């Protein structure tokens, strides 16, 4: 999704939940400030749906929860909340909360020109504080390219770059799939300046 800074005043976490329930748009909440989430491209949406459908089917009857872009993730150890494009949690603690999850093992962000730097930088720095997170997937919506940030058994983050012809391996949920499965039937074009929503 594409975040645009809102002009709302600083809110407490409780105020944020109460305020957002009255809004037409979703809002991320970072350090007391809210950021409106505007829509991405058609390809962005179709790719995100493919991930959630694939994860949900693969994880059927496992007890894991697949989240789409409507499911908040609480940044571990903080009162910050984001809306990734897809997420998976297999942690029983997330079955006791109704407004968000806190312990995802897998997070997917579909990249947009206006958010790519944030998704790779500041957002990843927040996400990787979570000891439960194993795989962070950054997915291009303009070319057949996916970058996987994978935490190995030693706790080190490795970056794996996938391109056309490759098979993606998500150890967090024991899933392998050809990269083309995500991009089937899509016409991929670069975003033009008029497609980009600036903060």
TrEMBL record:
The keyword Nuclease applies. It comes from Calothrix parietina FACHB-288. Keywords: Endonuclease, Hydrolase, Nuclease. Pfam families: Uma2. This is Uma2 family endonuclease. Residues 14-173 form the Putative restriction endonuclease domain. Transmembrane segments: none annotated. The keyword Phosphoprotein does not apply. One of its GO terms (molecular function) is endonuclease activity.
């Amino acid at each position: 999704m594409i975040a645009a800074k809102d002009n709302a005043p600083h809110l407490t976490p409780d105020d944020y939940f109460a305020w957002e329930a009255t809004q037409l748009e979703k809002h991320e909440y970072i350090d007391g400030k809210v950021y409106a989430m505007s829509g991405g491209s058609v390809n962005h949406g179709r790719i995100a749906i493919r991930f959630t459908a694939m994860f949900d089917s693969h994880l059927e009857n496992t007890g894991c929860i697949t989240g789409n872009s409507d499911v908040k993730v609480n940044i571990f150890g903080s009162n910050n909340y984001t809306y990734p494009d897809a997420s998976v949690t297999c942690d029983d603690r997330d079955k006791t909360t109704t407004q968000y999850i806190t312990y995802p093992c897998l997070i997917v962000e579909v990249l947009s020109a206006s958010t790519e730097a944030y998704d790779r930088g500041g957002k990843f720095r927040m996400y990787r504080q979570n000891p439960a997170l194993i795989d962070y997937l950054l997915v291009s919506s303009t070319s057949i390219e996916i970058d996987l940030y994978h935490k190995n058994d030693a706790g080190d983050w490795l970056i794996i770059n996938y391109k056309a012809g490759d098979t993606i391996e998500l150890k967090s949920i024991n899933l392998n799939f050809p990269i083309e499965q995500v991009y089937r039937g899509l016409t991929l074009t670069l975003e033009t300046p008029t497609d980009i929503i600036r903060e």
